[in-house]
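testing teh design pipeline on a random one, pls ignore if ur not involved
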């Protein structure tokens, strides 16, 4: 039986920071450097983060993380794979996220997509996520995908991965 692998979308497959940087630049003419964001949340970093995140189309237009498409394709063959994304807080994101996944990861069947409010309800063997709040309550192995908001403090017994190439080295 294949191990169940749960993969987050925002900050893992989709580059939410790049999108926020671009939105803020278009809106306010400010282009922030990702290197200066370490240890701060998206809402603390970007003045209008919630305005951007709640806007129609924000999640539909997120850039794809480097290496994620090909590596996820390989993982899909080896594992019982599910994309698990918290979508209920931002209702506009539901349809955007579905069509984004359909466009960039067409090999992921709609039955492999879980949109939820809390990830504490999902069960699996391995979870890749960028938020401690999701990994800390997960019973399986946690892979912490590096993002500026999770760089402060220790890794809380999760294995840190800095890229999809790190994920491949561990799971493939």
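output:
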């Amino acid at each position: 039986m294949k191990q169940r692998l749960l993969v987050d979308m925002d900050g893992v497959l989709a580059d939410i920071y790049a999108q926020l940087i671009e939105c803020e630049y278009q809106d306010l003419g400010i282009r922030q450097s990702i290197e200066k964001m370490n240890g701060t949340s998206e809402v603390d970093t970007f003045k209008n983060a919630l305005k951007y995140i709640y806007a129609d189309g924000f999640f539909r237009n997120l850039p794809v993380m480097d290496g994620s498409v090909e590596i996820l394709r390989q993982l899909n063959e080896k594992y019982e794979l599910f994309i698990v994304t918290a979508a209920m807080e931002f209702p506009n994101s539901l349809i955007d996220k579905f069509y984004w996944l359909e466009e960039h990861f067409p090999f992921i069947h709609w039955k492999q997509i879980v949109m939820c409010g809390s990830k504490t309800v999902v069960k699996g063997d391995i979870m890749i996520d960028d938020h401690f709040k999701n990994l800390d309550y997960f019973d399986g192995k946690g892979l912490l995908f590096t993002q500026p908001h999770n760089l402060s403090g220790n890794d809380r017994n999760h294995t840190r991965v800095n890229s999809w190439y790190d994920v491949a080295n561990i799971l493939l």
